[in-house]
Design a protein that fits this description.
Elements: H1 12-20, H2 24-45, H3 49-66, H4 76-95, H5 99-102, H6 114-123, H7 126-134, H8 138-149, H9 154-161, H10 165-185
Helix pairs in contact: 1-2, 2-3, 2-4, 3-4, 8-10, 9-10
């Protein structure tokens, strides 16, 4: 994290080291530093706000428990985000039958050119995009988040979700098309290239 501001800690490195010593005030400052961003990540994977809070709390426990394993303090932001995402995936596995990933939820007859979806996604207001992504069926929502938003490869997704790479690709393709269809229903169909 490039921008860091704290009254008690002069740098992110100092804050992380204090957390590693289990300093309660440092843990509180760390929590405040990452809370809004990480809750946003949790909200993308959760069905409800309460689930997002549960995932966030569970992830923070893991973060503080494993903070001494962090090798490069400059990578703390991506390390924490990775823990949050993996916690969300584990939560999903515990609360949802994985078979839902393998069944087609909707038959989508509307084909979209692949270059269109990425252009539309880049130009959308993130709040609108997240609202529509959260309305996708679980299997699609998880894969779309992992691939489109968080940048995981289909190989990584297949390992996390315990599905094949082809299933990941299929879920992404179907989810992407359903996402575009839902955006079109909201009247989001045409964008000027900026």
């Amino acid at each position: 994290m490039k921008f860091f501001k704290s009254r008690k800690y002069s740098s992110l490195e100092e804050l992380v080291k204090a957390c590693q010593r289990q300093d309660a005030s440092a843990q509180t400052a760390f929590y405040e530093l990452y809370k809004s961003k990480l809750l946003g990540v949790c909200a993308r994977y959760a069905k409800t706000g309460a689930e997002a809070e549960d995932i966030f709390q569970e992830a923070l426990i893991k973060v503080f428990k494993n903070l001494n394993d962090l090798k490069d303090i400059n990578m703390v932001g991506s390390w924490v985000k990775s823990i949050v995402i993996r916690t969300a995936i584990n939560y999903y596995h515990r609360t949802t039958k994985i078979e839902q990933l393998h069944s087609a939820v909707d038959e989508i007859h509307h084909e979209i050119k692949s270059e269109d979806y990425s252009r539309i996604i880049r130009q959308l207001d993130m709040v609108v995009l997240l609202e529509v992504i959260n309305s996708l069926p679980d299997g699609y929502r998880i894969v779309v988040n992992l691939f489109l938003i968080d940048g995981f490869s289909h190989k990584e997704i297949s390992e996390m979700l315990k599905i094949t790479e082809s299933t990941s690709r299929s879920q992404f393709f179907k989810g992407r098309n359903l996402l575009i269809k839902k955006l079109e229903k909201k009247g989001i169909t045409h964008y000027e290239i900026s």
